[in-house]
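Retry 2 of 3 after timeout on previous attempt. Resubmitting structure tokens to design endpoint.
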């Protein structure tokens, strides 16, 4: 294990516990003992790189960490691992995970703080319905497109929802996202929108982030300015 300080009180840990057998591929395995040591040594931030999977017992040990927990290279999560990790009381970053099923999503939705799943590039309606139950900040910035069914699922989400990977919206999807019940919706990946999409989005009742918008026409600018809770900076065409 190599641990190097990235910033004050922030540690980035890389495990190099490779198999000693030449017939086996290198696999970095985190033990319960090592997990307990890391939790004690890094009280505020723990960024862990190396293991691509962990056991439920290791997950349970890591969940006792009292600060931000990032499992950088974790690629998959079983329901039992998810059940352990959701006990973690602070920010939980699982950005290496590239796919989850609805069972795992249902479990992860029980996490009570910031949940980041930026490695997901697509969502099924079933997974979206489960994640929408999450009662905290939900980051899904790897998702690059939304079906109407997925957008409709997120209408029920009641906190900060970040979908900064989405590059375009149909009017129907925008109308659905505008019904998002949470405090804030971030769509910073949009570089342009039509007046019809703008008319739909201005109906959003919380804060709406559109910081990625570039040059748009004066009609669209006027529409967006009609809602003071929309944040954007753009030059009019």
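Retry 2 succeeded. Sequence:
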């Amino acid at each position: 294990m190599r641990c190097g300080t990235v910033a004050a009180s922030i540690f980035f840990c890389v495990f190099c516990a490779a198999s000693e057998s030449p017939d086996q591929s290198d696999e970095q395995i985190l033990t319960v003992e090592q997990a307990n040591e890391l939790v004690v040594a890094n009280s505020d931030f723990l960024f862990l790189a190396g293991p691509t999977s962990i056991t439920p017992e290791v997950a349970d040990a890591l969940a006792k960490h009292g600060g931000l927990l990032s499992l950088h290279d974790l690629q998959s999560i079983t329901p039992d691992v998810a059940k352990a990790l959701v006990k973690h009381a602070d920010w939980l970053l699982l950005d290496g995970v590239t796919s989850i099923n609805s069972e795992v999503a249902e479990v992860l939705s029980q996490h009570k703080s910031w949940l980041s799943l930026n490695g997901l590039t697509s969502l099924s309606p079933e997974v979206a319905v489960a994640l929408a139950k999450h009662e905290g900040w939900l980051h899904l910035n790897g998702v690059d497109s939304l079906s109407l069914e997925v957008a409709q699922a997120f209408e029920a989400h009641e906190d900060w929802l970040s979908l900064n990977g989405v590059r375009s919206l149909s009017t129907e999807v925008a109308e659905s996202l505008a019904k998002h019940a949470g405090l804030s919706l971030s769509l910073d990946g949009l570089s342009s929108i039509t007046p019809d999409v703008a008319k739909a989005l201005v109906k959003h009742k919380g804060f709406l982030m559109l910081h990625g918008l570039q040059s748009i026409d004066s009609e669209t600018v006027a529409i967006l300015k009609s809602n003071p809770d929309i944040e954007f900076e753009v030059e009019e065409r």
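Attempt log closed. Residues 32-41 form the longest helix (10 residues).
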